[in-house]
Specification:
Strand order of the largest sheet: 1-3-2-4-6-5-10-11-9-7-8
CATH class of one domain: Alpha Beta
CATH topology of one domain: Amidase signature (AS) enzymes
CATH superfamily of one domain: Amidase signature (AS) domain
CATH architecture of one domain: Alpha-Beta Complex
Largest sheet: 11 strands, mixed
Order of helices and strands: HHEHEHEHEHEEHEHEHHHHEHHEEH
Shape: globular
Number of helices: 15
Oligomer: single chain
Distance between the termini: 26 Å
Number of strands: 11
Length: 493
Amino acid sequence: MTHLRQGYGGQGRSLIRQLAEGATTAVAACQASLDRIRAVEPAIGAFNIVVAERALDRARLLDQARAKGEPLGPLHGVPVALKDNMCTAGVPTTASSRILRGFIPPYDATVVERLDAAGAVLIGKTNLDEFAMGSSTENSALGPSKNPWDTTRTPGGSSGGSAAAVASRMVPLALGSDTGGSIRQPAALCGVVGLKPTYGRVSRYGLMAFASSLDQIGPFAQTAEEAAVVFSAIGGQDPRDATSSSEPMPDLRDALTGDVTGLRIGVPRAFLGEGVDAVVSSAFDAALQVLAARGARLVDIDLPHAGYGIPVYYLIATAEASSNLARYDGVRYGHRATLGKDDGLLEMYERTRDEGFGAEVKRRIMLGTYVLSAGYYDAYYLKAQQVRTLLRQDYERAFGTVDLVATPTTPTPAFTLGEKTSDPIQMYLNDIFTVSANLTGLPAISVPCGFSPGRLPIGFQLTGRMFDEATLLRTADAYQRDTAFHAEEPSLR
């Protein structure tokens, strides 16, 4: 029996295989993850909670199941982490907000049930921007997570804890949620793979809602192959989610052929100019050439309304957030403010929400309430929905001539913690290339494609047709067969 070294060092895929073949045990894999967390978590701050004893108990049961000859799931014994906005029965779920301090859900989210059925071992819950509102994890009430490649910099957000946990080899796999880029942006900044599936492909039951028409759960991994395994395990229809799609899930293992001959990749050059760092542009162009060398065709396309994505997103998302977060009132669960003897129900609501929510969440609730209010609804929210339709039509036209659309994932590598906190607009602009996939419901993936001179990771993004994750993953996998950016490790000890 082999012994796992501390951390996974780019071997998440082989760990899945080792566990499937019985070359190592679930307990050994779990212990390696916990040892790595003890070694590097103090420098990273990726986790809100680690459930070590629960994880080891689960791993022992899985090893016993193997010994009895019971059927094994596709993620048998593999350690995973979950963004802390997915409900886990018996384990605190806070969305990194003071307003949910002490909340323990009585049920599991559908993705948690499906990971359990696949044989995964939950290691812990990861940090995020409060209620997934942010691009740096600096909006977390528990403090920011740090980028494993440079701990003075952000890991991205809002799923920064999940990305950092995978990048620092504390776990080989993690789940995040993506409302405007919250899987793909931190994946790019941390040098891992991040997949946002088609809207409705993965159940949102048990996910704490931010913007219900935009939210989607997806995996972080070191390779596209690993992401395919996780996506296959968690995807598919769920009757408890009214927006869940009945579209059949394909066998994604058959899609990873490495063959991209004749694949048409659209490049919206007019959208990729101002604001993109030269090092990002260079890495992106080099990534396209790797795919072209494998037989893909690069095609210039136009997405004339893509530049409106940020204002459209921040109108629609905040409007939906103002509605979804109304439920956090101190009555049913979570934080409740201490009241004076003369205070009434209104004072309890106001004080609870003032104490419980951070500045960015308050900003978005107020903005969303404003754009939905009488006299402003038509001018802002309705207009944003109309432009959203135009953006969707842009992609429909593009997919008449190409199979995928390629862009950088982010305009810059990871920025310094504190650099953009005083300027929300600059923070929002970091999502310029990612919000379109959420507004249109399309699947998209970020893949590591290089490093800055300061050894900060760079990612490129592929966006596909509705329900065509197979082409996304096949292309990402083909790219990774010819590159090794995903296998490089940060210098943490």
